[in-house]
Structure formats: C-alpha cells, structure tokens
Amino acid sequence: MIRSFFIVCFIICCFFAKAQHTSRKEIAVKGLQATFSASVLTAYQENAKEKIEDLFQYLQLLSDTDVSEDLKKEVEKNIYILFKDREVLLPDFFNDAKNQIKLSSLIERLKKSSLKFTLLDVVDGPILLDSWQTNYKLQIFNKDEVQSLSLSQTIYLSNEVKIFGKYAKNVWQIRLGAVK
After folding, report:
1. What is the DSSP string of 48-91?
2. What are phi and psi of 64, to 5 degrees?
3. Whole-model pTM over 0.85
4. For 24-82, how does the pLDDT look when each residue is reduced to its tens digit (9 = 90+)?
5. pLDDT digits (tens, 9 = 90+) for 71-110
6. Axis-axis angle for helices 38-62, 69-82 (nearest 10)
C-alpha cells in the first residue's frame, strides 16, 4: 500500500516537473506574447525605450570634447553591450543618414565630432516572435545645423544564460538591433 502510494506520488511529481520546464525552443516557437502577459511585455517595451535613450546619451558623450578618454572607453563598452550584434548597421548621421554604417565606424567618427541628440515621439510597434519595432524621431544638432530623422529600430527580447559565480541562470535580456 505504501509502496503504491510512493509510486503514484513519484509519477505525479515527474508530470508536474515536466510541465513547469519550458525550453528555449518551446519559447521560440510560442513567441513572446504566449510567454509573457501584456503588462510584462509593456514593462519590457518601456525598458527598451530607456535603452534607446541611453544609446543616444552615450553617443552624445562620445562626441563631447570635455569628456576624458577613459570615460569615452567605458561609454564605448556600454554602447556595444546595448546591441545584439557589434557590427549592426546604423544611419550615417554625418551624411544626412542616406547611407548606413557599422556601429564601430559610427563610434570612431563621433569621437572626432561634436553632435548632440534629442529623442522625440517614441512609439512601439506590434510584438513579433522575438522582437518588435520601435519608431522615433531623432533631432541631431551639429553646430548651427539641425537634422530631423524618422527612424525605426528593432528591439530583441531573448532568453540568455548568465553565470553568477558558480551558478547559471536563464535571464531575459533586451538588446537593440538595426536602425533604419
């Protein structure tokens, strides 16, 4: 009797353990809307807007002549951390944004310039499988000239493994993608 009780309990525990385990493949197939509630996704979208603001504040720091070289190196590292891919393409702010250049090239050009950025009208698009588009207007101030651009940026929300000492944990991360 006790033996059969333990067997039934063991089977039930195995069933619940499997039901609670969600692999990365299952999440990728279901998509973000099936994985998170609407309020959680809204919170992630707000966090992504803050990351876009951070990006343009970092880019402005790079072009500030009063900022030390050590601080500029740290800012550059933080810019790369924001993006999913280090060689993402961005508008070339120096040529009326007609062409796109790699992030690394933009950073090098900004270090030798004096641009200021103002972000306006940030609006999120619909959520796709693992990303969404965020649209915004960007004003770029270069001495006496002002350039206004309407841009669209891909935002990725992905599950990544993070190492904390001897422990590993799956953490959802927001990464910026290409800007068009």
Report:
1. HHHHHHHHHHHHHHHT-TTS-HHHHHHHHHHHHHHBSSTT-EEE
2. -85, 120
3. no
4. 444 444 688 888 888 999 999 999 999 999 999 999 999 998 889 999 999 999 999 99
5. 999 999 999 999 999 889 999 888 766 789 999 999 999 9
6. 150
User: Of 178, 3, 180, nearest to 83 (Cα)?
Assistant: 178
DSSP state at residue 39: H
Q: What angle do CA 99, 103, 107 make, to 5 degrees?
A: 105
- CA atoms of 175 and 54, how far apart (whole Å): 12
Decide: helix, strand or coil at residue 31: coil
* Cβ(106)–Cβ(89) below 8 Å: no
Nearest by Cα to 38 from 124, 166, 160 = 124
Copy the structure tokens of residue 7: 């067997």
Q: Enumerate residues 6+ apart whose C-beta is below 8 A from 97.
A: 91, 147, 149
For residue 81, what are the contacts with CB-CB under 8 A and spacing of at least 6? none
Look at residues 100, 105, 98 and name the one whose alpha carbon lies nearest to residue 79: 105
Query: CB–CB of 147/164 below 8 Å?
Result: no
**What residue type is assigned to position 145 of the chain?**
E
